[in-house]
Amino acid sequence: MVSLLHRLASLFRNLFHRSRVERELDAELVDVVQLLTDEKVRAGMSPEAARRAALVEVGGVEQVKEEVRSVQAGALVETVARDVRFGVRMLLKYPVLSLSVVLTFGLGIGLTTAVFGLLKGIFLTGLPFEGAERIVALGFYDPELGGRFEDAVSLRQFLHLREHQTVFEGLAAYSSGEVNVTVADGGPERHTAGFFSPGAFEQLSVRPVLGRTFRPGEDAPGAAPVVVLGYEMWRDRFAGSADVLGREVRVHGAARTVVGVMPEGFGFPRRERLWLPLPIDGSAAGQWQNRLYPVIGRLREGTSLDEAQAQVATLAARLERPRPGDARAPAVTALRFMDAAHPKGLPAFFAALLGAAAGVLLIASSNVANLLLARASARSHEVAVRAALGASRGRVVTQLVVEVLVLAGAGAVLGLGLAACALGWITSQITAAEGDAQVWMRFGLDARVFLFAAGVTLLAGVASSLVPALRTASADAMGVLKDGGRGTSGLRMGRFSSALIVAEVAVSCVLLVGSGLMIRSMVRLGTADLPFSTRNILTAGIALPRLDYPTEGARASLQERLLQLLAAIPGAEAATLSDNLPGSVDNSTAIEIEGSSYARPSDYPRAQWQVVGPGYFRTFEAAVLRGREFNAGDRRGALPVALANESFARRHFAGQEAVGRRFRPGRGDTTALWLTVVGVVPDMYMQGFGELSGAPDGYYVPLAQSGSSGAVRLALRARGDPMALTSDVRAAIRSLDPSLPLFELRSMESEVRRATWFYRDFGAAFVVFGLAALFLASVGLYGVVSFSATRRAHEMGIRMALGAEGPQLVWLVLRKGAALVVIGLAVGLALAAAVADALGVILFQVDPRDPVVFGGVAASLALVGLAATLIPASRISRVNPVVALGAE
Question: Does the N terminus or the C terminus of the chain have fewer Cβ atoms within 10 A?
């Protein structure tokens, strides 16, 4: 340790040289001032006057100090510039080695920077609004969902808090959804719309570029219908016309007046194309008062989050007055908006992703360090000559480090290009799967990403070059010169190189375990025996405007006629309508099983639910296991019925026949009707795919009994290519209502790919990291063993001359590499077992500690390590002993 500290001190000696000169001048200055003062006192001046006069006269010394500082600074800059120029020459002198180092750095820096850019875009960017740190979300921690924060409150709570709170500049409710939009001289389109209560734009601190936002009262029943356009819709549909204010846009069949245009790029919570007032009727009673809405507020200046949480909890508690014996509803609280926006488990996954990228960078740096140690032998004579001519050890080390930083800089340029491509690809995937990213998600190369890349480059360059440089500079110059430049007495590859290889194998093992789990997960996704068919099925969405279809009967009538037209299309085998498709994101509610009792509201179980029309299970070729499917008789006014999936029946009717049993959505005080189970169907991933989803148990209710809002998804199974029926489906819609847009038209196979894109694409990132790590580790191991074997050529020549056989020589070399691989594997498998749980959120039906994956990784690394050591070891056995001895 003392030796290492001494070497580090030598490295930075030149940097402290200027300070030493200044200290010497300061000491000289004190002496001069004292001499002048004494001389003037002897001439009759008072001590105070003499000292003041002396200080005036030494102004020239201060000028000298400034000149010295300037000279020293110029010398330092010139030294660094000279080292950089020399580094560039060395890069060109050893092109193969330099290219290897640049590519290695580029891969490590590029992957790490790409992950940081992703992490920054999701977690570190924040809302793009003024004072965004003061924007909070209201909600509660739901014990029924594992304590997950639900960023929504009831309408009753929102109105009460908005009226009585004093800690926010205001509170506003919002939601988001799809709407049908028709502009004059244009056909119907489907767009994402935001629904804002008055004041929402003000809480976000954003102002329109034209007109105004919503006024108080415009969210009340009977208020004038208005709309605020997004910049993109204003540009695309109105050509950016300044007279857009006052013009008419039909939204869901209702004419609305344009009152404002928002700035370019604005959106919340996504990048909506237009905004409507969120209809709020404070006088309404019953279930409508319990509807949940996301709510945001802006903290007043000088108000802390703790103060806001205390007041919100107090006001909400006054509002909630449970009946005796009833548990109090979950307490309402406030969180920073960005803290509430990220699902539980996501930070741990991205931390694992960043750790994987850092692991690749660590392996890359280790490889560079070993390559530099190998090159150091060739350059030992050059360094020895420099030392003999008077170069200090620190000066030599500084030069060698700067040379590697030049290579790291070149690698950083390559890495930034790789990172830019990766972030662009991620953005395209999110856009294709989700329609658009959240408003705060901005992926790309910005100042923070460049700063991170610069820091990583500096760290990787210094970390990989410092020890080789110190060892090179500390070699015995006289011994190296006596060796005639062969470097045999100056350098040895020993414990440091071995430790690097162990670290490389260990980190590679961790990354390969992650890759193996991802590959196994993606294979499961691709080959899973889904309980529903995805082949030859066309899907699309339609939405019936309330203004044109105000009653349930009107909506049901059009849906029935549409289903008949779809079934009559030539080439169609079956058709159905539903509110969602199989594999959609979970939509759960509390339920009550007839005959069961529940002590507390939190004891009521939850289940997924979905609305489906006749022919749903026939269309997706999912056989009804017991009972029957819905039919035309299951309509409004008939017996309320439901279908239970296997998990629902197993959980709530274990050991009993589920058909004929009853349950209802809601808790004990609900007015919902009891539903009679008429059939049991397979689990069809109602909860969605992956570990972030809820429990699989769920039930289905008939479309005709659901009071459908009119927004449905159609599914049509064809005899051949389903997309060939697109024009027929559009024609069927137009024949019923030309103003209805058909949206999200794609195959069911595409829908499943969209539903699983997160698991598939981010899993692929781990596969890339693992393969990069395996490649780098195998190259590093090969390089170390090959160099070690080459350095032992003379020894092997002696052994062969004394009668040693080839296999014995191979084993001498092989056992060292094998020992390094075994130690690295042991450490790596232990680390992998410790961190595997973080990958659970992106695994599909795979145990994070799958023994097949762990065993396969161990075997693969062992084989790669064996090959990497066996090749140079076998080369030694073919060395001619005469040649080996003569080379010495």
Answer: N
839 burial type by CB count under 10 A (0-12 exposed, 13-18 middle, 19+ buried): buried
Q: What pLDDT sits at residue 21?
A: 45
> What pLDDT, in 10s, does the model give residues 68-112?
444 444 545 565 666 666 666 666 666 666 777 788 888 888 888
Total domains in the fold of the chain: 4
| Spatial separation of the C-alpha atoms in residues 578 and 702, rounded to whole Å | 9
Closest by CA position to 712, among listed 721, 720, 722, 704: 704
**Helix and strand element counts for the chain (H, E):** 25, 24
The kind and range of the H/E element at 344 are: none
Q: Determine the Cα–Cα distance for residues 353 and 349; give it in Å rounded to an integer.
A: 6
pLDDT for the residue numbered 804: 62
Dihedrals φ, ψ of 254, to 5°?
A: -100, 135
Please, where are the H alpha helices in 698-756? 726-736, 748-755
686/645 Cα distance (integer angstroms): 9
Do 333 and 424 lie in one domain? The reply is no
Cα(780)–Cα(377) distance, integer angstroms: 17
Q: Which residues have C-beta within 8 Å of that of residue 886, sequence separation ≥ 6?
A: none
Verify that 592 and 678 share a domain, yes or no. yes
| CA–CA separation, 314 and 528 (whole Å) | 50
Q: Mark whether 615 and 504 lie in a shared domain.
A: no
Residues 161-213 pLDDT 10s: 988 899 999 999 998 888 888 887 667 788 888 899 998 999 999 999 999 99
Query: How far apart are alpha carbons 531 and 538 in whole angstroms?
Result: 18
Residue 491's pLDDT band (cuts 50, 70, 90): very low
HSE (CB half, 13 Å, CA atoms) of 380? 27
SS3 state of residue 810: helix
Query: E strand or H helix at 789, and its extent?
Result: helix 757-791
Q: Which amino acid is at 592?
A: E
Identify the H or E element spanning 293: strand 292-293
Tokens encoding 573:
């085998």
The parent domain of residue 46 ranges over 2-83
Same domain as 485, residue 415: yes
Report yes or no: 104 and 364 within 8 Å, Cβ to Cβ: yes
Indicate if 731 and 781 belong to the same structural domain: no
DSSP per-residue letters across 596-645: ---SSGGGS-EEEEEEE-TTHHHHTT----EE----TT--TTS--EEEEE
In this structure, are residues 621 and 533 in contact, taking their beta carbons and an 8 Å threshold? yes
Contacts of 109 (CB under 8 A, 6+ apart): 361, 364, 408, 411, 412, 414, 415, 416, 453, 456, 457, 460
564 shares a domain with 514:
no
Distance CA 562, CA 520 (A): 42
User: What was the pLDDT predicted at 177?
Assistant: 80
Average pLDDT, the chain: 76
List pLDDT tens digits, range 812-835.
667 777 787 888 888 888 888 887
